Amino acid sequence: MKLADVVGTENRFLLGCWSAAVVLVLMLGLVLGSDPVSILGVAESREFQVNFDSPVEIKHIYVLPSQIVRKGDLLAELGQSEWESQLRVLKSRYDKLNAEMHLRQQLAGVVKDLGHLAPQADPLLVELEDARREMALIEGRMKNLFVFAEVDGAVGAVNFKNGEKAPAFAPLITLVPLNPTYVNGYINENLSSTLSVGQVVEVSSAGGKVVRGSVVSIGSRIVQIPERLLRIQTLPAWGREAVIKIPRANEFLLGEKVFVQKKWSLSLLSLANADEATQAQEAQQQDPRDMDIPLNIVETFKPEMSGVVFVPELKQFVLVSDDYPEDRPVLFLMNEQGQIQPHQIQLSGLPVMADIESMSVQGEHLYLLSSMSATKKGKLKEERQIFAQIKRNGLRYSVEHHVDLRKPLLLALKESQDPVLKSIYEADLKLTKEGFEVEGHAIENKDLYLSLKGPVLHRNEGLILKVSDFASVFDGVLKPAQVTLAARFEMKLPHQDVELVLTDLIKQGDAFYLASSCRGASCSAIWKMTAGQNAPELLHEFRMRHLEGLALHPDMHQMFAVFDSKSSSQYAVVSLVADKRTP
């Protein structure tokens, strides 16, 4: 049945008019039924104060009053002698209890009943566990003695100097955000408003700047509205306070007067736009971006970042360049936004070291490894063969051991019973320019893993060596049996046939995370290979070469990658949330 059979041909125009009228009435009802209130407010921000619940010592202040800082910048390094003293006493107590436990175990054969006590009923075990927990608690608190900027802002006041002691809860440093973060507004008591907590509102200024915000609180009492926010300044008014949170990225000035209005929109459209914005942001994160390197660094030399690790205690990434002026290495700190701090970390006790290609971290130790390769002219220089173990104490790094690793490692390969390892040694003898070279290493417990860039035995073949009980190399001992082949696999990109070489390595549980770069093509890739796999899984592919280093951010479930494009140092962020096997 057609529409004309129901209403008739002559009534179709009338039906259309009625339909338009109904739609118009509904739209007017939505507009007239919406909240007409527009409240006035002031864009403000809260001052951040740095303090501690116990007395601290000021080891070093890294900022000055009025200095502009970025989120994640290091502000100060503190000390706590009382905690250090408590930790020494607890460690001494723990060692004594542990010695008593060993003595008991030796006597268990004579007095057998001592070996069958339940842990909860054994007072010695209870004391040991209590001491261990107290030690872990103090060690955890001592790791938080680094003060970082929580937001982009300006340093307000620095109330203490280096070497001074600050009492508990005393404000050490104040930080004022550069942009306002909330609006303090007032709802006139004579106006009807349905404004509610959690509601999305539009915040605008007289200059035309507009952002979206959300209501976080509405006052439960009536207060006098400040004179500045009165529509007629000679006529006092009262109302309820309302606090609206606004994005940190805004163009409002601190103290600027703004207008707050409720806005309605189609929720489905808003959700779709939000999803598109989220996807666009993730895609942008995965594209390499330039690092923000301060002028005081680039004026000295141009870093070529080759290695990166994340240090949880510092909540920062530590980076190293492959070459330095006069081959004197320093370390750099970088936050999650790719911003390098002006402060450079000196390495005490380290002789000249060149062509540094990888770094790793384990506990309080940092490890640096040169490429162990020859120069472009085929010469072997001692400073390009170094493996260094570095002890970290706060922001002070001192070298404990360093050794020429190439000589004992190649000798172990030569004397190995494994034909693949022997072939690596023999290939190095035949090749002058593309011989033995390591660009990635990882450390797990007592084992050292090395990813080989060369020599290439087969096209696109990845080789990972394992050096067991690697600490012996610092004593000049490396037996052939200590060096084994940890993994051998083929790498292949799905859409192009190019030659790939390994450039970095991370060992996480039973998985290897690998970085590769293309030869003769603009591409790089991140791979994952777990125990039992014959080939690595491709996690992400980049359309540029020279991927040099990888670092896992354990809290954000993200992989940070650094590139050395010769013209600039770049970084990229790859999300690992979809990888359910990632710890």
Please characterize this protein's 3D structure:
There is one protein chain. With 583 residues, the chain is of the alpha+beta class. It contains eight helices and 35 strands. A hairpin with a 2-residue loop joins strand 23 and strand 24. The radius of gyration is 32 Å and the shape is globular. The protein starts with a helix and ends in an 8-residue tail after the last strand.
Classify the beta-strand content into a percent band: 35-45%
| Strands, count | 35
What's the rounded overall pLDDT mean? 83
Give the helix/strand class. Answer: alpha+beta
Rg from alpha-carbon coordinates:
32 Å
What's the total helix number?
Answer: 8
- End-to-end span in angstroms? 63 Å
Q: Spans of 5+ residues with little confidence (pLDDT < 50)?
A: 265-284, 578-583
Strand neighbour order, sheet with most strands: 17-18-19-20-24-23-22-21
Describe the sheet with the most strands: 8 strands, mixed
| Helix content estimate | 10-25%
Shape: globular
Question: How would you summarize what this structure contains?
Answer:
By secondary structure, this protein is of the alpha+beta class. Helices cover 20% and strands 37% of the residues.
Features:
disordered C terminus; 6-stranded antiparallel barrel; 8-stranded mixed beta sheet; 583 residues
Topology at a glance:
Blueprint: H1 3-7, H2 12-33, E1 38-44, E2 48-50, E3 56-61, E4 68-69, E5 74-79, H3 81-107, H4 123-142, E6 146-148, E7 153-158, E8 165-166, E9 173-177, E10 182-188, E11 200-205, E12 210-218, E13 223-224, E14 238-245, E15 257-262, H5 267-286, E16 289-290, H6 295-298, E17 305-311, E18 316-321, E19 330-334, E20 345-348, E21 356-362, E22 365-370, E23 386-393, E24 396-404, H7 406-414, H8 419-430, E25 437-444, E26 447-454, E27 461-467, E28 483-490, E29 499-508, E30 511-519, E31 524-530, E32 537-542, E33 547-553, E34 558-564, E35 569-575
Parallel strand pairs: 20-24
Antiparallel strand pairs: 1-10, 1-15, 2-9, 3-5, 3-8, 4-7, 5-6, 7-9, 10-14, 11-12, 11-15, 12-14, 13-14, 16-35, 17-18, 18-19, 19-20, 21-22, 22-23, 23-24, 25-26, 26-27, 27-28, 29-30, 30-31, 31-32, 33-34, 34-35
Helix pairs in contact: 3-4, 7-8
